[in-house]
User: Which sequence fits this backbone?
């Protein structure tokens, strides 16, 4: 199974903010959308970075309430690991586990085409394993 299959089911809508958005504005977006991270993009949706709840919590711990006046471009992670639609679910899971992050932007020819979370990847992997188990059960019982 590939990331493309996840995006086909999940959809390709991606929440993003401009680098000039304040952290207070980003917090509002995260809360309103009930998500854990936003991509930071230019007006033409060129990926600049990613900003997660963890990034915001760290800034609040270090700077207090004044962190809310900072801009997304100041707090975002600039070096973002990305996947391609043809990346396998197992590869994506490995990237996320090794990199210790929970959100993976998907690019095709340098164009943003989606975003998958660790939850999306785990759900896809479980579905894949359930299908394999069902196939093996059918084979063993002679139902295939």
Assistant:
């Amino acid at each position: 199974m590939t990331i493309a299959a996840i995006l086909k089911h999940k959809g390709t809508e991606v929440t993003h903010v401009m680098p000039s958005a304040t952290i207070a504005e980003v917090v509002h977006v995260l809360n309103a959308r009930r998500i854990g991270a936003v991509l930071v993009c230019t007006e033409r949706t060129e990926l600049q970075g990613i900003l997660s709840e963890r990034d915001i919590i760290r800034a609040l711990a270090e700077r207090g309430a004044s962190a809310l006046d900072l801009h997304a471009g100041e707090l975002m992670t600039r070096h973002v690991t990305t996947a391609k639609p043809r990346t396998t679910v197992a590869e994506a899971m490995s990237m996320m586990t090794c990199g210790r992050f929970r959100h993976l932007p998907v690019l095709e020819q340098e164009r943003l085409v989606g975003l998958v979370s660790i939850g999306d990847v785990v759900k896809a992997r479980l579905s894949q394993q359930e299908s394999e188990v069902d196939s093996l059960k059918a084979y063993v019982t002679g139902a295939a």
User: Anything to note?
Assistant: The radius of gyration is 18 Å.
